[in-house]
Amino acid sequence: MIKIELPLHPENQVAMARYMQDQFKFNGVKAPERHLLERDIWSAVKHYSATEMLALIRQLYAQEAREYQYLAIDLAVRAKRIWQLADLQDLLAVVTDKAWWDTIDIWRKLYSEYIKLHPEQFDVIWALFAGNDNFWLRRISLILQLGFKNQTRLMHLTQAIEADQATDEFFIQKAIGWALREYAKTDADWVRQFVATHQLASLAQKEALKQIK
């Protein structure tokens, strides 16, 4: 198993931690540098099996600095073609570990990409998140179809929003607005009608209509 050690930049640590409301410690490695380092790391691990990749992801997640979690998720997304449904189910324990909006929103990409590769398994993936007791996983159900455009399954999107439209959780309401705002790029009239016929929280409504003229 490859051993990964990211550089330390003390001059960036305080600002990066503050941006995340001091929820996590950082090495101070900013995204551009991390992505450059990731290229070399990916070259060394791109032939890993799913079992080996999962072990590496867990190893990275055990590290304290937040950049290791970002790296783990990026590698998981890059390795999207190796995963089977059982692997994605196993990964949920990692997804919910040290969860915050930053990691959740990147993990969403993995499950979205899996659906694009295996559209027949949409309902099974959907069931991992929709109605879950963990609101971070429900956030994924709300934003799972970002960028799906005409392929968006509106019944599922509606179900996810209606289940949480009264939830007093900032990150849920932001996700509702985000999902609707994204779909408005495909069908603004549908979003207008949806907002008009649902009692959305003011935050969700504001976010949903932000880019509709």
TrEMBL record:
One Pfam match = DNA_alkylation
Known InterPro entries for this protein?
A: ARM-type_fold, DNA_alkylation
The protein depicted here goes by the name: DNA alkylation repair enzyme family protein
